[in-house]
Specification:
The structure holds two protein chains of two kinds. By secondary structure, chain A is α+β, with helices and mostly antiparallel strands. Helix content of chain A is 20%, strand content 40%. In chain A, strands 2-5-1-6 form a four-stranded antiparallel beta sheet, with helices on one face. Chain A has a two-stranded antiparallel ribbon with strand order 3-4. Chain A has a two-stranded antiparallel sheet with strand order 7-8. Chain A starts with a strand and ends in a 5-residue tail after the last strand. Chain B is of the alpha+beta class.
Chain lengths: 112, 802
Amino acid sequence: MKKIEAVIQPFKLDEVKEALKAIGIDGMTITEVRGHGRQKGHKEVYRGQEYNVDLLPKVKLELVVPDSRYEEVLRTLAFAARTGKIGDGKIFVYEVAEAVRIRNDDRGESAL
Amino acid sequence: MMTVGNRPSSELEDAILALAQRSADVDARVESAASAHFAGQPIAVLAVGGYGRRELFPYSDVDLLLLFANEKAPVENKERIGAFTQSLWDAGLRVSHSVRTPAECTEVHDGNSELNVSLLDQRFLTGDRVLYAALADRLPRFLRANRGDLVRNLGALTRARHQRYGDTIYHLEPNVKETPGGLRDYQLVRWLSQLREGGDSPQWMPQPLQEAFHFMARVRYFLHVHSSRDNNTLGFEHQDSLAEAAGVPDPAEWMREYYRHSRVIYRAALAALENSEAHSSSLFSQFRERRARLSNADFSVHRDRAYFRAPQRLDVEPELALSLAGFCATHGIRPSAEAAQRIASRLPQLREHFAEPQPLWPILHRILSQPHAVLALRVMHETGLLQAIFPELDPTECLVVRDFYHRYTVDEHSLVAMDAFLAAPDPYAGLRAEIADPSVILLALLFHDSGKASGKSHVEESERLAISAMTRIAMPAAARDTALFLIRRHLDLSSALQSRDLSDPATIREIAAAVQTVELLKALTLVTYADIAAVNPTAMTPWRAAQLWHLYMSNYNELTRELESDRIQSAEIAPERAAFLEGLPTRYLRTHSAAEIAGHMLLEKQARDCGIAVEIRRLESAWQLTFAATADRPGLFAAAAGTLSSFGMNILKAEAFSNRRGLILDMFTFADPHRTLDLNPTEVDRLRTLAARVITGKTDVRELLRNRPKPILPSRKARIPAQVSFDSTASATATLIEIVAEDRPGLLYDVASAMAAHQANIEVVLIDTEGHKAIDVFYVTKLSREKEADLKQAVEQALSPK
């Protein structure tokens, strides 16, 4: 099993969810986060005053998928989240040792 | 597997009997276990809580109190207690037991008020009767002697619980036990009565309250049986099943029945708590009676509640109901149960009366402009008065629209949104203070989801319903257009937050073009904030609030940048009109109606004939001076501002425009604090003539201002330090100067004069006042760095206290 962690632009969330749903991936955890990579922050001017916006709003998606599907999920996710501009985000993939469905103690891929 | 006492009742109607039967079954089981493990020991076993009341729901905890003579006894009987509880667990009962002495039971436990409360429902089951008699003897005296403390603790517990559920009964998936208006509130009414009577259970409860209890008990019984656990959340799937069982095809309709019963319990609980607290605290009573002085010719105030002085007047004077709402809005006092009941009983007549088109807006506007406007709307909603005035809101009353994120019914969501609008923290609070008429936003929020019952696009339907309501109450066109715009566009910003790239200039340009003006942008941002915050208590995360603010700032910058950069080029309209409009900022077209533009064209014609034309007209709550001049010269704007100040007028807003053929068109919206113009109509002509003389340079404005009395400065702590900021990057052709300063008569004249003296050409200006604070934004023709520094110094000097 692989855990996929993707930090994406907030306005791409619906598109990404729809794309994952279309390939049968429904379960995921979503968190509102802030951060920056190479995009860095920028300055905003409001009524003549300057404001530094150094941490930009992003959305973090976390999902765990069977090994057999992770390449397809990765491709779908990256395609749906892409605008081609700096700030599109990152995807990280981790190995998962075990999964447990708390309700009935299912283990491994059947718990996903 | 169903175990002892968890048998489902065949019919829901049998639920109450089934609870008593289950209690009896469990009694037998407990007595048998006690005789097996406690025989001959000085231990008394008591049923407490719901079990004590013989209302033991299937799968609910069996609350037991094991009474011992002294503190050592439980230690000596540790093994017996363990064996006793284990045997009950093995029989399938979820036992929750506590071990106490009679002395511990008759102490006030501030940190564990639940113990004191549970003893109100205590019932002897088995064991040492002499030991129990010691408690039974002391308990009534203890309750009487400590009534005040116990009521206070019970009140604190109740308020904390209500607060956890947002102080409202209107949850989409309510908890039938804990939510306001749930079974716990029904018990509260009983407990408070018991405390008043020294522990005796109330012999009588009002019929609607009893019916509400039976309804709730049946629902809870159903939930426990069908969930096979202690589940009190009335989820959507259970609503479907219960509606089907009751023969109601639409679950939303069945939920209305639920809210009706819940409302009866909630009102009874609040009334009982207030009465008990008043009896228990003389200080509280004194405070409440202090408010009696607010009584007037129509309403008297007693114990913090408003009463009709002559209730029968309501029959011939339906507006009296609205006056009561106005009284609540002004003083933050709720109507008495009697006054509310009086309105509720006259609803058919009130509906008939308000169905006729009539100019109700001035009255509603007054209510919505008061500090406790939302309380008044809640009172109107609870009594049915709101729906009598606006039957368009009937379909969304107590309406459950199933949605994973929303927590409240549609009507409650709108009221929560109004609260959220008025309580929005910074930076949104600053934005709210800049809104000229917040009552329009409140009305827009009242109607923004009114079309949700239609089953089609709710935005269109909400707008249709709002048009019907606003036409009937004769809402003025400008306010109505703003409210309808906000209803029509209320989803635009949240949908942009969700699905648009906010860093893309095209997105911002598109939104700004749709929003049109800075004023509407501010209002729409606040409506969006309130709408999101009212979805559920945690919906407006700091992350989302920051996103929305970013969207607001980007659009604000786009709209203000456009002020000087985007000029009307040409239009496919009449040549005369096109020639007049050419070169004016696009904002001009968006902020002025066709009739106003026609008026300005007329002014331009007059100005071409005589060099100057001045118009003064009455607005709804202010005045407006507009002048058109064909020959520009330094200080025109300052001269007009100075003339108004010399007349004692307070400038609220000003705009300066010029078109391509050199017409200067400046507008000043001003307040007349002494009502000089209203009371002396001839002064309007004098002001017009004087303004024309000053603008054409025939009269020196400085002479006029010399005779004005000096303003009284606010206390040192309340003063607003003057700030001047220059931004030459915001636009390619203009320098933006923003001034934030203490507002005072003549301020605008001083600043504009300083600019004129430095040959700074004012292209566009936006003036706003916010309480004592003046916020002025000037666009002046691009300045060199040196000139910028000189002008900054001159403006700062103009702002320094005189």
